[in-house]
Amino acid sequence: METGEMLQSNETLLEKREPSSRRSLLYASAGVVAGAAVSMLQSSPAHAHSQTAAGANFINVRDYGAVGNGVTLDTTAFNNAIAAASGKAVNIPNGTYLVGSFTIPLGVTLVFERGAILRPSGMPTITVHGDIEAGHYQIFELGFSFTETLTVNRPRVKVEWFGAKSAASFLDSGPQIQYAVNFCQSTRTHVLVFGAGYFYTNQTITITKPVGIIGQGIHDTTIFGGGSIPSPDPIFHYNGTTTPINDIIIGHMTIRDQYDKRLDGIRTTYLNSTKFEDLFFYGLHVAYRSMVDCWCIAFENITVLGCRYGMVLGIGSTDNRIYQSIICGTLTSIAVQGILNHLVIDSCDFESCSAGPIEFQHYPGTITDIEIVNCRFEKNVGSIGTTAGGNIDTFVFRNNYVENSNNNTAYFLVLRNVSNAIIDGNYFQAPSATVIDAGSSQNTGILAQNNRCLCANFSTRPQNTLNGTPHAYAINNGPGLSPSVEHGTAAPASGTYQRGSIVWHHQPASGGNAGWICTAAGTPGTWKTFGTIS
Description:
18-stranded parallel beta sheet, ten-stranded parallel beta sheet, 45 strands, disordered N terminus
């Protein structure tokens, strides 16, 4: 039984997938991702019968006159077999069946053996009220239209049914993937499954209705955007209108550009109540871009590596949550480019971003309620904060770890036109910049408290780090280490020390001192002798 056949619903799909190791993905490369080559493809069984069809309770379309030679018209045989099925499964053996329009009634399942393919005669329409069963192999040639007029729980659909092929060469499956999407949209199917392997598309795949896309895992399923897609168009475009696309899941695959940093991975418009999970974006212009009015979007276990930008959130992004994700090697990891309401960034890693890990840029109006919590920032250049225009109402930066950041930047947090900001419980290790710039006269109600920092600027001059803003307060901020005790023959000339650190003289002599004590934290801080030896 194939992986896609074992998973019967979105919920069980999510339960059966183990989340990938985010730290191991951080050091992945194109070569590692490329390890999921054709040799990893799962073989499909020769027959893909349901439990009903596997027993005696099925009929064979050839028993009703189907020839399957690709030339003889088999529509009548199909209609007769389906009419005789009366709730039974209809088995379709290996062969190419030329058919016109027909209907799969509710309660009837067509079971396709490997090698059984339907060929269109004219421009036929298949009305799908019942079910279809097949493995990850082709069962439809191009040219059919599909419809479904009953409200039923559609089964999941495999992209290979429509001729999409996984291959090591750059074989374009774009038309076949779009064909599969169109089937799902026409039959109200909410899950399109990709098998293991590489799939290439030289066109943007446009999705306008609730159709989620699911792979077999980031190491097993890779979608490449081909060179014929104009830069910077997306590989997948969820293009809702004023009627939003709702309630789908997108995940368990790698999405990357055939060439470096030309294309967006996924672009969305009017997308609501959607979860992105277990996705690896590599070598793209923008990994994920929302254009307008994308609400209640959850990102979990996302890895972005070597893209120009990680996530760009457009106008009307509301209730977005980014959780347990890694963004590494970008210019900007997350850029907010429009009015936004409620963004939570929780338990994420940001590493080696060269133009600011998180920016709120070029927007009019007010951004409301931003929380950045439990995150790690390492070896980033640039600031978190505002770069142009607009206002921020309620900004929380709490319990984050910042290490070796801002090699060329004056401040790590830049707050402009901000009301009600809390910078609380963070640990800053060896930043080469002053931590906070809250110098804008438009800021109100900024509180920095309980932060620890291995730099003199935050620990000894907290008022200066807030640039003297009248409505900004610094409380209980200080160095990040406990006072140390060492032995030597002189006060330290290098290193960072907290107030109260002691160096005991290990060659004491009469008339000399017992040691040195740090009276002001810093690098190396201020040191005074103590304990005259009589």
